[in-house]
Amino acid sequence: MKNVKYGYIAPIQYQHLIPESADFHLILAHLLGNKDYVDFYKKKIERGDTVVLDNSAFEFKRALSAEEIFKFIDDSGIEPTYVVAPDYPFEHWEVTLESTLDFIERVRGERDYKIMAVPQSVKGDYKGWLQCYANMAEHEDIAMIGMSILGIPNAFCSLTGTNDIAYNRIFATNHLLETGIAIPEKWHHYLGLGGGPREILIQRQLGLIDSNDSSSPFWHGYLGTQFDDSIWGLKNGKSPIEVNFDAGFEESRVQDIKINIDYMESKILLQDEEF
Questions:
Q1: Three-state DSSP class for 51?
Q2: Which of 30, 70, 182, 232 is 20–30 Å from 259 (CA)?
């Protein structure tokens, strides 16, 4: 079973609970105005951790321009390892591809960031999504492919007959591998979690995943929900309550968060030799 990196995402006042052993992180552009948040990840960068700057398209409900992304970086002083290029969920695949190629030109020669590109398409256009993926995976200046919790279900629902995030991403991954379209040598980062953490176990068995990030261990713990051994790890599904990154610290929330972290470390992220 393939080993993976995992990025814990936490409300700012709970960041200190992120395991010290975690050396892979995904940070959110819309939080870079918070000094405590930025200082926490600057220390991670100083010790040599990998830090991916997401463009916060999910949180902003729109794609950020290159200028907006650069301003977040410059104003905060953060120096990420990777930056997620602007992507356009639910729009024609060529819109995201062209935006990504333009972003590459903006970065090349000016900034020392590696680039993550995220394939997208209009609803049901899995062929367009595959074309977008192929162009990105073959591009030498794209270091990482983002496997989206929005884009993949949106594209592959026409084949699977469902909008379930985990099911569609597993289906899409298997399809990429079976058809030979996948380029396993390229780093594949699975953005977020849908139904729960156990999707990672299946993705590890398929072998294309290299990393994942999610707020699920922290946010569900904060809400008093512990991971379980149901099919995706959350028997009642993902909470519809959006993450409040400004949630105040309450000691009573810590136990469930720690239980979820332990679940991730002992059941989901065990290194292959530990099984």
A1: strand
A2: 30
CA dist 66 and 77 (Å) reads 16
Q: What is the pTM of this model?
A: 0.95
Please report the DSSP string for 161-190 in residue order: S---HHHHHHHHHHHHHHHT---TTSEEEE
Element containing residue 99 per DSSP (H, E): helix 93-107
Q: Is the pLDDT of residue 178 over 90?
A: yes
Report the alpha-carbon distance of residue 57 to residue 85 in Å, rounded: 10
pLDDT at res. 275? 38
| C-alpha span between 250 and 246 (Å, rounded) | 12
CB 4, CB 212: distance < 8 Å: yes
Dist. CA 38–CA 120, nearest whole Å: 29
